[in-house]
Each structure stands twice: as C-alpha cells, then as structure tokens.
Design a protein that fits this description.
1429 residues; mainly alpha; two-stranded antiparallel ribbon; 67 helices; 4 strands; 52% helix
Length: 1429
C-alpha cells in the first residue's frame, strides 16, 4: 500500500513517493492534459483523448512548453493579437459604417423592447395573515424550534428567511426540492447497546436483535493495493470482521475495544473517528441526526459525550479534495469541544449569538482563577506591577475587580509585566494605550526613586531602554489622541527628569560657585580608529561618524542625543503651541526641556534654535501682563508666568554667555525680569507660593546673567526694589510658616545676585583701562554699565543683617534661618573685599580698621559659637570624600542617562541646610582667607579653626580616603574640595607665623597631596595654586629642616652594620640624596609647572570663574566630567613625557647628548621628588599601584641608551629600587595586574630585555631591574622570554645575590611546575649558556629548580614522570663533573657561600635510592656508580 504524503516530508521524500507511485502503475486521482489552442488551429476531441489514453508517457504529470526557439527572440515589437471572432464577421468594403453600427447597436431601448412578461396566472397568491396586532410579532432567537435547519434551505440564511421557510413548510408550500431534505423521525431502536461500541458498526437499521450488516468498510476502500480484485478482498475481510463482531457479546466488544485503544496511536484513533463521522453524514441522505448514530467512546470508563453533528458536505467534487484537511481539523476541534463541554464553567446554548462554534480556550476564562502561590521559591519570578507602578508580590491574592487580571501569561497573578505593558501600549484601543503609558511612567518614577532596588534584580531603567522604550515614547508622542499624548509626555518626564536632582541643584545654587554645574551627559568612550593609517584628508571626521550612526546606536550611547535626533523638540513645540494641553502636561514638557538643556551646551543651543519653541514659551508662560484667575483651580496655565519656564531660561543661560545674550535681547527676557522683580510678590496677581517661586527663579536667572557681566543695567534701574526686598524679609518668620522655605530661597537668590553684581562691578575699572590701552588688533570685553560706586552702598545695610543673624544663632527659633542665610552673606562680603583691593578708591587704613571690626564682631564670635562648632563636628560624618553615603535609597540610573542620584536627600545629613557644614564653613573659610590676605595681622586669630580637634580629625581621615568619581558624587565632591582647598590655603598663611599650625604642617601637606589628584574639571586653578605654593614648600616638608635626612642616614648606617658588605650602592646614600632634593625644591616646582603648561588655558578659565572675573567667563557650564584634572601618578609626568618624546620615536637608542635640552636635569628633578615622596610622604603615592611605579620608573632605561648610566640618575634610581624592594613592598607588588596605560607588564618586560641586550653593558642597576620580574610568584611568560628568546643576555647579567637585595627564596620557592621552563633551565646549564661567573643569581635559580624537579617523587602525569627520569639519567652520565655535582648535590641557596648555594656532602638515602632505581633501569651497576660518586 502506498504511503500518504505528510506535511513534514521534504522534497526528496516527495520525489521518492512519486517514483514508487509510477512503478505501481496505479491510476492517478487527476489527469493533467493540455487544452488545444483553437486560435492556432489545433484540433481536439475524442481522437486526441484516445491517443493520450494509449500513450503511457502522456499519463505522467509532465509539463512541457512547446515551440520555444533555441535562440532568444529579438527585441522587436510583438505582432498584434488577432480577434477570435473576426473571421466569423463578414464585412464589405462599400458598406456604410453607420448602418453597420445601427445593426449592432445594443442601446438600452433595444433591450427594453425585447422584455416579455412572465405568465403568473397559475401561481397561487398568498396573502399575509390577519392578526389583531398593529405590528408583526418580534422574532426572538429562542423560537428556533419553528425554524428550518440550515441544510434544509441550502446554505447560510438569515433568521427571518428561516422563519418564512418554516411557515411555508407548515403550510405545505415549500418547494419540492426541499421536501426531500426535511428530517424524518428515526425508527425506535430494539437493542440497547452500550455507548461504547466498535468503531465500524452501523446501528441505524435493526432487525430484531441483530445488527444489519454493512456492505463495505467506511475506512478501507482497497484502492492503491495494485491487485486486480482489491475491492472484493476488502469486502470479504469486512464481512469476516462483522461476523466476528456479531458473535461477540457487548462486554467482549468493550474489552477488545479497550485493548485497541491502548495499542493504537491516539492521533490514529482521532483520524478514524473523524472519517466515520464524515461517512455517516454522507450515508444519511434522509437527514438522520447524529444522536441516532453510533456514540463514539472517549477512551475512558466514564460516560461519553454525544458526538456533535458534523458539518454538511456542500462543496463540489473539485473542491472536496482541497477542503478535506480543513474539514478534518474542524471535526477534531468539534470533538474536543464536546469532550470538555462538561468541564466548562458555562454551558453554551444554541440561542446565544455567535456561539454556533464553541471555543474552549475563551470559555475557560469564565471559570475561577487558580490560587496564587503561598510560599516563596528560589526561582526568579516575572515582575508585575499595578497601575500605580507598585510591585505586586507573587504570593499576594488581589480581587479581580481591580482590573489587574488579564488573559496573558500567569493568569492567576495580578498585575502587568513590562512586556505586556509594551504590547498594550501599541493597542488599537485608546484607553489601553493610555493606561499602559501611564503605568510605565509610574514605574519609571519609582525606579528613579530607588524603590525597586531591594526587590528586583538588575536595572529596570536599563532594561526598558534596551527594549526600545525611547522609540515607544517617541511614537506615542505622535499620537493624535490628547490622552495618549499626555501619558507619553508624563512617561518621558519620568524617564528623563528626577525632581530630587533638580531640587538638590537648586538648593546648592547659593553655595560658593553653586551656579556652575557639570553637564549631565554620559562619558564618551573612545572608539577604535579604523582609518589610523590613512591620510588626514581621507580620514572621517567625528561629525561624519556621528551622522552615519543610526538612531538606535545614538540612543544606546546617549538618550538625550537620541531624542534630539528623533526630532523631539519640534513635537514638543507643536504640543505646547497647537494642542495646548493641561497644566500637568505643560509642567512635564518644561521639565523635559530643562533636562535637555542640562545635557550640554550644544543641546541647549538646539532648544534655543528650535523654530517657535522659545517664542511659545515666552508668550504663553512668561507673559508681561496677565489677569487673576476666576476659578480657584486653574484649568489652563496659558497666559500666566510659570516658575519652571523661568528655570528653563536660567539653565539655557548657564550653557554660555552667547546663549544668555540671545535670551536677554532676542526673546525680551530683560522685560520679563523687570516686570516680575519691580513689584512685591504679593502684587503679582498670583498665588503666594507661585509668586515666590517665580520671583526666586527670576533672581537666579538674573544672577546667571550677571555672572557674565550682562543685564547689570537692570541693577541700576531696580536698585530701590532690591533694597526693599532685602528690608522686607528682615523680620522674624514663624518656623511653622509654610512660606518660610520659599522666602528663604528668594533671599538666597537675591544675595547670589548681589554677589555676582559686585564681582562684575569690581572688573569695571580693569576693563575700562584695557579698552583705553588696547590697540586695533585687540578686542577686550566692553566694561559693564555698573561700576564700583554703584555697589559701595550695600555693605553697610548687609553688615547689619549679618550681625543680627549671628546673634540669631543664640535663639533656637531663629537658628535654622540664620544657618541657612549666613553662607550667602559671608560670600557677599568675601566678594566685596576681594574686589575692593583692586579698586583705585581702595583706602588701606580704613579697610584694615573695617576688617578688624568685622573679625571681632562677626568672624571670631561665629567661629567660637556652639552652632558652628556642631557643624565642624559633623564634617567627618557628612563628608563625601571620607566615605560613601550609606543611604537606604539606591536610585536606578543608566550609563546613557546619568543623573545625580539624589532621591532621599531630605533624609541625608549632607544636604539639610540646618546641619550641612559645607555651605557655612566654605563661605566662612573663604572670608577668613580673604581677610588674612589683606590684613596679615589677623591671620593668627583665625588659627583656632585650623588646629581644632574636629578639623584635624577630619583632615586625617581625608589622607586615608579614596573617593570615586561619578556624576552621583561629583556635584557634592566639588563643594567639599573647595572647603579642603581653602583650609590648606589658610594654613599656608598661618604656618610661618603660628607654631601650633606649623606642627600640623606635614598633615596639611599630606592633605594637599591627596587633594591634588582628586580635583575635578573646572578646578584647574586650584591645582595650579597648590603646586605653586603648598606642594613644594619647605615649610610644609618639615622633615627637610628638622633632622630628617640625618635620621635616615643613621638608620641606614645601623642597617649597614647589621648586614654584610655590599659592593653596590645601598640605602646609605638616600640621606644625602634627600638633603640635595630638599635643597632643589624650587627647581623641582618649576620642572612640574613646566610640564603642566598644556593646562594653561584651562587654568585661566578656572581662575576667572573662581576669582569672580565675570566679563571673561565664557560659560557657567563646567567641562565634561571625563576624569580628574591631574592623573594619580602625576609625580611621574616628566619621566613619562620624556619617554613619549624620545623613547617611543627613537626606540631608546638616543644618547644623552641627543635628548632634548634639559632632559637630564628634568629626569633628575623628577627622581628627586619621587624619592622625597617615597621616604616622607608614602601615603601620597598609595593610590599608585606598585606595578605602576615599577613600569613608570622603567622609562629611565627606555628613554635613552645611556641615561641610566649618568651618575645622579644611577644614585637616585638605586635609592628608589631599594625602596621598592623592601619586604613589605615586594609582598604587595603584583606584576600580573596590567599597569594603567599598558596592555600587560609582559609587553613592557620584553622591551626591557631587548634594551638590556642592546645597551646595558652589564650594568648592575639595569640587571637588578631585569631580575626583579623573574620571581617565582610572577608569570611564567617572563621567565620563558629570558631563557628562550633572550638567552644571550645571561652572559652579561652579572648581578650577585648581595647586590640584588631580594631574598633568593623568592626565586626558588615554590618549585617550578612548568615543564617547558624546566627544560630551558636544563638546556641553558648543559649548553654552557648559564654559568656562575656570568650570571650567579639565575645559575642558582636554575640549579634549584632542576634539582627539585629530577628528585621529586610526587605523583605526576606520565609525560612529567618520563621527563624526570630522562633528565636524571642525563645528569648522571654527564661528563662535566662540576655541573654534575652541582645538579645532584644542590641543597639550598645560601647568600654567604662562595657559590651562592649549599650542597650535600653525600646524597640523602632517599635520593640515592631513587637515583639507583631510575638509572638501574638502563644499567644494573648504577648503585656502584652512585657509591663512587
């Protein structure tokens, strides 16, 4: 029997089946023949068909294309097609065309004229029934009993048509072709067989108790067997089966049926049942229902469900084959539906709409949900959230009326997963899209607040961004429905904006240099240059590379750049200008624009340049006139000033002076500032809190502009309003007043404005002089409109305020307000006196008297006050440098969207205004340092702050700290760095005149050294000032003039007496080297300042910002946070710079004379400074890894061919080598760690070996440097390189164990486990490449490892064991008796021995026995030879 094709068959299987079918000679189900083309005159008919029947080749399914030419046709137009009916039409040349047209005219009149009315005289006329109702009775679906079944009326009919057909059938008026299809009542059954019967019995006709036989099987037809009488055979087999069944009892039938069902494939059983159902429908022309047919067993002992009525076969024969598979599938579905009908929660009724086909998968949702898990499991669960973004525990059972259950995965669990929310956000239903986007926004808000840190693994923010959240929100913004658009804006704000971050930055605005901020942009990773070897013209620029990136690539690296690339700004402008959304959406959009402006100066420029965006913001949210709202709750914020709009202007102005000038002049910000600040907040027709917020932001915006020297003309115009604002606040406010904090922030912003105006006025005289003396080529900034005379009237009134706030510290009620406002007043007076000394009207005597009064009445009482002392005690606990803040809040951040991570800041001691020590102590120290600079006599009065126990304890903890650099800490680290710097500067002035501070000079020097590599971008001036003053000051290196070098010499002398004689320079020279280095400190300072000259432009920019030179400031946006200003290994910079100039390009072959001018002196001064730090300031170099120190000092040998041979270089390098090889340093040195800037130390060591072979001339210092990495604990690669590629260098490596100052045990222990390296050791010894007179250290090392290897009896691999035996035999039969004795009788390395090692007098018994057993394998007399030895 031929196999039926299956859906899973491949093409090879189908071809194989085709070959078997052709070989069997069976008739095909279809015949393929080519129809004759009558247009070509081809004849068809019976003759051709008969020919095809006799031709066996034509019976195959072969497609042929005839009349194809062998060559391609020419590209000429094809001949026109000929009509098939043209030949049948006869036309004459002289016939009139009009008559021909009339003859063939098919006008509508011709059609209508041929209409013949049908005779209806014999057709009966039926009138509608007369009823007493005004309208016909409404037909209900429940009245289906009076309807005719669908098969009876032919196909799918409407309910009304079926009702009419039923009425006609009742009246006997149904057409005759329908009468034969009406159902008949079945004959009553005589034998009641059980429901479980055989699969092929027909119980429709009964004769007594016997079953009427069926003529043939419904399943097996016998076709395809290839036998002549196949049909007879199948009928005979069928009759025998029926006779057997008739002879069996019902119980035997059921038993046999169970056996068959257990043995057969369930899919085969389903197939047989579906075939029987199909055949039964075809064999019942009288319309017998399925209830009268055989009930099919479900394969279990329970009662079987009745088989549903199969569908009618209404397709033609040509379509029957095509729909066979679909019909079988439908039957299978119907069967399954009936089987589980009892399990469904609701029984479907036939009267229900669209329930003619049961769908169990959908009906299952009407049942009860399974109970959620009550116990936790170790397996991770999918996170699910409610509509508020709250994470739902997997064990929580929530009611279904909350709407959190759905038809997704895990239906028993409430809530939506992130994947389901993504899917729901693209729904066609508006409500679903809005709900999904709102939920995503709530999840983002809680993730940014760190609420999921302890419950979820990984970062939700990063997961959502990787999944394409950015594109989802951008698409949703283009939605035409305002609700979806608003939800998308809310989610975008939750993604980009952290309101806690913004509040923290606003809080620090009034701190020292608080208006300057870092750009919130991700760090740019350096991409590999693919066109390094191309010419400069052919190289692709950075802009072109950025343009070639896709939106997805840009968004993965930088979220803000990706949004700008996707045209976010024009869309936000459209929403604000055209859609005019609700107040919340407007607030969210303005906050999003503010976050974009904080990204970088280029992003802020794009916001300003966006067409009609800033015009819309200015006209709608910062109008010059507005009215009081008529309703208490605002329905719209359009036409009213908003604080967030003014804040957006401030952030845009922070990006640069050019942007600020555009805002002031092109967008009429001056008029807005004048309008908002000329009146009191209560007169602005706004809510009190809203009025205070708007005016506060206006003052901040003005302060930023004044920081560039702009908008200072408003100061002259609004001077009365400013004084009135200062005076109006100078009254006591209740601590419980809700407007207290807005009032305080308003006063702080006003004082920040006055401070910046004072700085700008102080530069007026210098700018005026530059303008007068400038030539045509120079173009200095124009002098500002405000001069020094305009600000001289403020200090008197502000000094009274300052004194009152100092006195207010004594009252508990006013203490918090005083601590909040005092920093701003102190910063103002520091700016005033700093600029006063530069003015031509400066009067020294009067100023000194004022400063003395200020010190006695304000500064000294403030320093000694208990509230300030409490702040000083909080320094260590509040420090960001000393320790990481261990808060319970862990905000979710992403590398592509950096933030400050400020959630929970209200609970943090660092930022609370009343307990945070940084704003007050920084401003106080700044004022003290300014006063001490002018009045040096007052310096000694301020030393109490420097020597107080809390400050000293804080500074000691700083020297042990290792802060990390990131956006989350940089914004606070910068302010703490200012405080540390000012304390060091004040100590620099106090050390020469105060003995107590002088005792702490080493501590302050260590603090300065620790602070130097921590300083962030924008603090280059601080680094330059520390290098110029404190770092290289002899006053702060007290050891240089208090017996420090002498103490080192005495220690070296004692060490020298206790040890044996050394033939090389030792630690004895370090004391003299230190004395010489301290004498050259000024020259060393000049050397380092010269090598940092590339930072000159950055130092100038930083100096202008820190010293208040406002007209020269280009931007208040600090440089990008790429790393500290100076690297941690800055003391090695001169040496590294020389190596980059000469060592890399010259290959280390240049002589000292060929080096740049002053190179020898530069290297000497660098090594001197390193020696000072290693001896007296070891903590300063603690951040530099020992492997990095060794790698940096290796440049001494790689820079030049003979630089290391110079006498001063030799001495200093020997001293540093001795310090690096101290036992404690050797233990911490790990050469397996790659040094910063290098791929691995092995690469550097290869370069050192090459340089040693080329230019060393057996130098002992260079030799020690080569031997150091060959210690046993380091990588085998370096020892393989020495004994493999550079084995020739062993001849000149004459360093003795005494000169090395490294214990030999570090080279010989533990035993070597590298078999190739042991082979190299043995080869170098046998070949004579390694001799004790050439390389004594490595000779001992090789002997030790080879001896341990050959006498080792530990279990090892067969290869290693064979190598031991082979090597031991070679040693035993060696002709060089000296080497043979050294290898066999080696005992331990010994520094005092002449050979450098100790030997056995005779082999120990264990070794002798082992030697005898190994050598005896080849020679039976080995024991005698061993005894002779």
């Amino acid at each position: 029997m031929l196999r039926r094709p299956k859906p899973t068959d491949s093409e090879a299987d189908l071809l194989k089946d085709q070959q078997e079918f052709i070989k069997s000679g069976s008739l095909s189900a279809a015949t393929v023949f080519r129809r004759p083309d009558k247009r070509r005159g081809e004849a068809g008919g019976d003759a051709e068909e008969a020919h095809n029947d006799h031709n066996p080749e034509s019976q195959r399914d072969v497609v042929t294309i005839e009349d194809l030419p062998d060559e391609l046709p020419s590209l000429t137009p094809a001949p026109p097609k000929k009509s098939r009916f043209k030949n049948s039409r006869v036309t004459f040349e002289d016939e009139d065309a009009g008559e021909r047209l009339d003859r063939h005219d098919t006008h509508i009149s011709a059609v209508l004229s041929k209409i013949v009315e049908r005779d209806t005289s014999s057709i009966p006329i039926s009138l509608p029934e007369v009823t007493g109702m005004a309208f016909p009775k409404v037909l209900h679906r429940s009245a289906t009993g009076t309807q005719v079944p669908l098969p009876a009326i032919g196909g799918k009919k409407s309910i009304f048509a079926r009702q009419i057909a039923a009425q006609r059938l009742k009246d006997g008026k149904l057409p005759s072709h329908f009468m034969s299809q009406t159902p008949q009542k079945p004959k009553p059954s005589v034998q009641n067989l059980p429901t479980q019967t055989n699969l092929d019995m027909d119980l429709c006709d009964h004769a007594g108790d016997r079953v009427a036989p069926i003529s043939s099987s419904r399943l097996v037809s016998g076709e395809g067997l290839g036998v002549a009488n196949s049909l007879d055979d199948t009928r005979r087999i069928h009759r025998e089966n029926q006779q057997k069944l008739l002879a069996m009892s019902p119980s035997e039938i059921l038993e046999e049926q169970k056996k068959l069902l257990c043995q057969l494939d369930p899919r085969l059983v389903e197939f047989v049942r579906s075939r029987r159902a199909e055949n039964s429908s075809c064999k019942h022309p009288e319309g017998k229902s399925s209830e009268e047919s055989v009930r099919i067993s479900s394969g279990s002992s329970s009662d079987a469900a009745p088989c549903p009525k199969p569908k009618e076969v209404g397709m033609e024969a040509a379509e029957g084959e095509e729909g066979e598979e679909e019909e079988e599938e439908d039957e299978g579905v119907s069967l399954r539906c009936v089987m589980i009908e009892k399990e469904l929660p609701v029984k479907p009724q036939k009267e229900w709409v669209h329930m003619d086909q049961v769908e169990p998968d959908k009906l299952e949702w009407m049942g009860n949900l399974p109970a959620p898990r009550k116990t936790r499991t170790k397996r991770a669960m999918q996170a699910r959230f409610d509509f508020n973004g709250i994470l739902i525990p997997p064990t929580e059972d929530l009611p279904t009326h909350l709407g959190l259950h759905h038809h997704g995965e895990e239906p028993e669990r409430a809530g939506y997963s992130l994947q389901e929310l993504f899917l729901l956000s693209r729904s066609q239903l508006i409500q679903q899209r809005t709900l999904a986007l709102s939920t995503l926004g709530n999840i983002l808000s809680k993730a940014r607040a760190g609420e999921y840190h302890s419950t979820l693994k990984g970062s939700i923010l990063s997961t959502l961004l990787d999944a394409g959240l950015l594109f989802l929100l951008r698409f949703a913004l283009d939605d035409g429905v305002e609700g979806v658009m608003s939800a998308a804006v809310h989610a975008l704000r939750a993604l980009l904006v952290c309101r806690e971050d913004e509040e923290c930055l606003d809080l620090t605005f009034s701190w020292f240099r608080g208006l300057a901020t870092f750009p919130l942009m991700p760090s740019q990773e350096e991409e590999e240059e693919e066109d390094e070897h191309l010419d400069e013209i052919l190289k692709v620029t950075a802009k072109e590379k950025e343009e070639r990136k896709t939106d997805h690539d840009v968004a993965q690296q930088d979220v803000i750049k990706g949004l700008l690339r996707m045209k976010l700004l024009p869309r936000l402008r459209y929403i604000l200008e055209v859609v005019r959304p609700s107040p919340r959406v407007v607030q969210d959009i303005l906050e999003v624009l503010t976050r974009i402006a904080r990204h970088s100066s280029s992003s802020a420029t794009q916001v300003i340049d966006c067409p009609r965006l800033m015009e819309t913001v200015m006209s709608e949210f910062l109008p010059t006139t507005w009215t009081t709202p008529s309703l208490p709750l605002l329905q719209s914020v359009y036409g009213r000033p908003l604080a967030c709009a003014m804040k957006l202007l401030r952030i845009l102005a922070t990006s640069g002076r050019h942007a600020c000038a555009r805002l002031l002049n092109s967008f009429s910000v001056r008029e807005r500032l004048s309008c908002l600040l000329s009146a009191e907040p209560s007169e602005l027709l706004l809510e009190p809190y809203e009025a205070l917020s708007v005016t506060t932001e206006a003052y901040r915006m003005w302060a930023v502009a004044a920081g560039y020297g702009q908008a200072c003309d408003l100061y002259i115009d609004l001077y009365p309003a400013l004084v009135r604002a200062l005076q109006s606040f100078h009254r006591t406010l209740a601590p419980s007043d809700p407007l207290l904090q807005p009032q305080l922030q308003r006063v702080l912003a006003l004082l920040a404005l006055l401070t910046q105006v004072t700085h700008t006025a102080g530069c007026h005289q210098e700018l005026h002089a530059d303008m007068v003396s400038s030539t045509g080529d120079e173009c200095p900034p124009p002098p500002p409109p405000v001069s020094w005379i305009h600000v001289t009237g403020l200090p008197a009134s502000l000094l009274g305020h300052l004194k009152s706030f100092v006195k207010g510290l004594d009252h508990q009620v006013q203490r918090d307000v005083s601590l909040t406002l005092l920093p701003a007043y102190l910063l103002y007076f520091a700016a005033f006196y700093h600029q006063l000394t530069k003015q031509s009207c400066f009067k020294p005597v009067e100023t000194l008297y004022e400063l003395e009064q200020l010190a006695s009445e304000v500064l000294l009482p403030l320093i000694s006050h208990g509230a300030v002392q409490d702040l000083i005690k909080n320094l260590k606990s509040s420090s960001v440098v000393c320790r990481e803040q261990s808060t319970s809040v862990h905000p979710d951040t992403s590398p592509s969207l950096p933030g400050l991570a400020c959630p929970g800041w209200r609970d943090c001691v660092v930022l609370m205004a009343s307990s945070c020590p940084f704003p007050l102590l920084t401003s106080l120290t700044l004022l003290l340092e300014t006063v001490a600079c002018i009045h040096k006599g007052l310096t000694c009065k301020f030393t109490g702050l420097l020597v107080s126990e809390p400050v000293v304890c804080y500074l000691r903890s700083i020297t042990q700290a290792t802060p990390t650099l990131s956006h989350t800490q940089a914004w606070l680290l910068r302010h703490e760095h200012h405080l540390i710097y000012l304390l060091v500067c004040l100590a620099y002035r106090s050390v020469p005149i105060d003995a107590q501070v002088a005792k702490l000079a080493p501590l302050y020097h260590q603090v300065a050294l620790a602070l130097l590599p921590w300083l962030l971008p924008g603090s280059e001036h601080l680094a330059h000032d520390l290098l110029s003053t404190v770092i290289f000051s002899k006053d702060f290196i007290s050891e240089s003039h208090s017996g420090g070098p002498e103490a080192i010499e005495l220690g070296e002398l004692k060490l020298h007496e206790e040890t044996s004689h050394h033939t090389s320079p030792s630690l004895q020279t370090v004391g003299a080297l230190l004395r010489e280095a301290c004498h050259n400190l000024p020259s060393i300072r000049g050397c380092f300042l010269t090598h940092l000259a590339h930072l000159e432009s950055s130092v100038q920019v930083s100096q202008d910002a820190l010293l208040g030179r406002n007209p020269w400031i280009k931007s208040h946006l600090l440089p990008e946070l790429t790393g500290p200003t100076l690297p941690s290994d800055w003391p090695y910079l001169p040496l590294l710079s020389l190596y980059e100039k000469t060592g890399v390009s010259g290959g280390g072959g240049l002589t000292v004379e060929q080096l740049p001018h002053g190179a020898l002196q530069t290297v000497t001064q660098c090594l001197q400074w390193l020696l000072v730090l290693e001896v007296w300031r070891e903590e300063a170099l603690r951040v530099v890894l020992p492997v990095a120190k060794l790698a940096r000092l290796s440049c001494v040998f790689l820079c030049s061919s003979d630089l290391f041979l110079e006498k001063p270089i030799q001495k200093l390098t020997w001293g540093l080598f001795r310090l690096l090889t101290r036992p404690s340093r050797l233990d911490s040195m790990d050469l397996n760690i790659p040094p910063p800037g290098l791929a691995s130390f092995q690469d550097l060591y290869s370069a050192l070996l090459t340089q040693y072979e080329a230019v060393s001339f057996g130098d002992r210092l260079f030799g020690c440097w080569i031997l150091l990495p060959l210690q046993r604990k380091y990588s085998t690669t370096m020892r393989l390189a020495m004994f493999g590629e550079h084995v020739g260098s062993l001849r000149s490596l004459g360093v003795t164990p005494d000169q090395l100052s490294i214990p030999m045990e570090r080279f010989t222990s533990p035993p070597e486990d590298s078999l190739p390296l042991v082979h190299l050791y043995f080869r170098s010894l046998v070949t004579g490449s390694l001799k004790p007179c050439w390389c004594p250290v490595l000779y001992v090392v090789a002997l030790a490892h080879v001896n341990t290897f050959v006498f080792s009896q530990d279990a090892a691999a067969q290869e290693v064991d064979a190598a031991r035996h082979n090597m031991l035999r070679k040693i035993y039969y060696m002709t060089d008796e000296v080497l043979k004795n050294h290898l066999l009788f080696f005992r331990l390395p010994k520094r005092d021995s002449k050979l450098g090692f100790d030997t056995y007098d005779q082999l120990p018994p264990i070794r002798a026995k082992y030697l005898d057993s190994v050598v005896g394998l080849q020679n039976g007399h080995c024991s005698d030879r061993a005894e002779e030895q």
